[in-house]
Amino acid sequence: MKNRAVGMIFPLLPVMIGFYIPIVMVAIEDQVFSPEPETSIVAAADLLVVLSTIRVVAMAALLATLIGLVDAILLAGTRGPLRGFILILLLASFLIPPAALASAVQACVGASTLRATVRDEVGAVLLLSLRWAPVAAAILLAAVSMWPRAQERALRSLPPGVALVARLRGLRPAAFRCAGLLLLLLLPAAELPSYAGVETVSQRILARLTVGDAAEGWRLAMVMMTLLVPAIYFLTSSGDEPARAGHLNQVHGLPRLPWANRFLFLRVLPALALILVLFYTAWPRASEVAIAGEELVDAVSSIGLELPRALLASVVAILCGWRLADGGHRIGLLLLCLPTMLPGSLGAIAVARIYRPFLPLWLDDLPFLLTITQMCKLGALAAAGGFVATCVLPASERVAAHLLSPTVARWRIRLPRALPVLIPAVGIGVALVLGEVESTLLLAPPGHPSTALELHQLMHFRNDEQAARLALVLALLGATLALLVGRCWKRGD
Amino acid sequence: MAHRELALDLDQCVVTRGVAVIGPVTLQLEVGEQLALTGPNGAGKSSLLLAIAGLLPVQSGTLSIAGQSIASGADGAEPWQRGIGWMGQERGLWPHLSIEAQCRLVGGKKRKLDSRIAALAEQLAISDRLQRFPAQLSGGEAQRAELLRAVIIPGRLLLLDEPFSAQNQDGRQRMQALLDLLCTEGSSVLMASHEVPEDWASCSIESN
Question: Which of the residues B46, B80, B158 would you substitute to probe the A interface, choosing the one with the greatest number of A C-beta atoms within 10 Å?
């Protein structure tokens, strides 16, 4: 028992230092736990924002899951040309940072501002669905990869239509869970809805914490946390144990369905169109070539400077998630996930208030606090990556590894076998850190290079061409990382 | 009566797997002995082997391996501490390591490991397959390679679940000859199987 508890403590250290300890200290400092008797826990105006946020994210989660379900069934259950390319384009629409995505949509719809064209909850739902549908597809593809080989072989022996329906039925429980998970992941969304002019609970909390009544902001966050904890626990603990068997790593036996190919080509058209329009908008006029070149070099160099930091944050987070999942620490995974599902500003503000006064000047000039906060924000990805990496290891291999000493079994057998899942997770983590704006805005030291933050600020000045150039660089980075992830998932099309 | 050294001693052991209850089972296996565990499908042969290896909990009764009593529950010895060679019903070779690398990993820093790997591989007719990865082996070769990995440390209690299922006559004879040899070295074999090899003792588990 003691060993088990110790095994859970080390992977949780970053999230304890970077989230829970500062949050509790700040909450105590702001007297969150002693509300005045005549005030209610949450103000009525805040409650309206909570309800509208839930409405928007619930619709977006449902739509994204539906799209992701169709994508996953067709990608897992059929074969055809350019599947690797399709997968990369699908992933790219998630790995492109929100600011770049919004910039591309803005350029695509042709209006001077995004707010003027997609200015309501429908716009927010569409933007969120566009970005998160590939995540739903990835989750459901991971679920398919856990089906036993024998079951997959049996499916391939069925007529194509019957097999697709059987796959749909097989994925139905996972799809319900996926919708629930997306709902939780989308709740802290602030950036994309803000481009559509919709206020969410995250923005309200940030406003309360920075310019309004801080205690009220904390109380709102506590309410959100109280709702989230049982929901995450339910999602991670209910349901059957996964089959723990690898998906057949080749396409032989899968049907070739022309309509599926046509659907998948249509499906990636929006992502392709957004990148092309971004490219077109970013293309400089003759007089702007020199400036555009400088901007491009600046953007690429700032991403180059950010890359090692993003890689470090992502690797540490993913390894922590894998260690917790490998040890079967469900409470630990819950604690790891929670910061992702709360507003990004919450941890950032707490970290800044608690640690900044004690930091030596030289450390304050480095993005130390920013890295820890962004690492904590990758908790859900780390937990999901670790969980999938553990589940895809076939039971027979796991049993054989149990007969070696724990250290040898962990580092020589289970970690190398988990790498095909963990490496793509690290790639996705890097893209998320590079595109992150909320914590960067609050914690980045002066002069810190961040292309996503620069783009976010440009979006508010409506500088379309320059914004498009930065967005294009970020989009290409997202596509490159999607290529890496896609290579790891290649199954031989 | 001469003192008998026991490799495995089960006394009234009850094992649960999901809703199924197996036992109580009482069984003794002497050092150097080969015992086949038979019984109908679903009787719990594999579950019993898993429980002996520490991969399923023993609900009640006592279990001793090489004279050491193994406590049940969280305080029991971990699987890797029980001194067991394991070969499961499904292939459990690790696909990212060559056969030789897997044997070295299990064998640790034992003396004369190289010569032992070579000798055992020769006996199993997989000498020229040692540098290969599991995906590059046929079903029968992979099964023999897994046996090689399981027996690389001498003098252990070997738990084998349907070890001959993918073998032709020649492969089966080679494996049996190797197991006979290992038993003279001090190993003991408990095997779950539908067929009992000649000269082997057997005991049967009936389904509840």
Answer: B80
The whole-number pLDDT of residue A491 equals 47
CATH assignment of the domain containing B140: 3.40.50.300
Count of domains forming chain A: 1
ipTM comes to 0.72
pLDDT bucket at A42, cuts 50 / 70 / 90:
low
Residue of A398, A403, A415 to mutate, interface with B, max B Cβ within 10 Å? A403
**B77 occurs within a structural domain:** no
In a domain, B110, yes or no: yes
The answer to the question of residue A363 being in a domain is yes
Residue B94 touches chain A, beta carbons under 8 Å: yes
Position A493 in a domain: no
Token duo for residue A341: 């599902």
Which structural domain, as residue segments, surrounds residue B39?
A: 6-72+82-204
Hey, which residues does A79 pair with through a beta bridge?
A256
- Whether cis (ω within 30° of 0) applies to the bond prior to B24 is yes
User: What is the bridge-based pairing of β-strands B188-192 and B34-38?
Assistant: parallel
pLDDT at A215: 72
Which chain B residue is nearest to residue A249, measuring alpha carbons?
A: B135
Q: Please check whether residue A246 lies inside any domain of the structure.
A: yes
d(CA A196, CA B108): 61
CATH value at residue A326:
1.10.3720.10
Around Cβ A259, how many Cβ atoms within 10 Å? Answer: 9
Residue recorded with tokens 């992977």? A11
B195, B30 Cβ separation under 8 angstroms:
no
Dist CA A200 CA A187 (whole Å): 8
Domain that holds residue A71: 2-488
Question: Could you tell me if A424 and A318 are in contact, meaning their C-beta atoms sit under 8 angstroms apart?
Answer: no
User: For chain A, what is the mean pLDDT?
Assistant: 79
Count of domains observed in chain B? 1
On whether residue B108 sits in a domain, the answer given is: yes
> What is the number of other CB atoms lying within 10 angstroms of the CB of residue B139?
11
